[in-house]
Design goal:
Elements lengths: L54 H14 L4 H8 L5 H16 L1 H11 L7 H16 L5 H16 L1 H16 L1 H9 L5
Helix pairs in contact: 1-2, 1-3, 1-5, 3-5, 4-5, 5-6, 5-7, 6-7
Amino acid sequence: MKEKPAPKITLRDPSRASEKTQAKPAIKRSGKPIVHPKGRPTTSANGKRDQNFPPRETALKVIARVIQDRLALDEVLHEETRGMSAREIAWLWEVTSGVCRARGFLEHVIDSLALGKSPTGKLRRRLMLAFYGIFFQDSIAPERVVDETVESIKRDEGEAIARFANAVLRKAVSSQTDWKTWLKTPTQK
């Protein structure tokens, strides 16, 4: 089976391009991004997702609906994952089901490290999601989880709350081995 040759692409400014340089073909000829019927951006041909719709925000939305509205996780995920790539769906299933399973532990950690304050609402859900990433997802660097979480909190809730979250998350990262040991220790009856 022969491979088709790459389409010939003409560059707009030939003086800036060498003979070996070729631009990537557009997703659509119109130049408009492909959009899901509900208005969500889908994964593009190069595998990248629009920055306005990261899967972490979807995970927060799913966790909120499960905890606040007491809806079944699989039903909420089925609704929220339409138009997503298989990789994003797998990540969402892992994270949201993990947060729901470890909710008691995650809330205990938040209350223990929150310096006498008890975060509520969206901030608490963001911290639960971040702590799940720190304690249970070995494939993601804890520092990356902290940075992404603090940036999203700063963007949505302000600088002061982001500093509080940063302190709590950094404290969790520094005491990560202690918490993992505590988790593995059997309880006595």
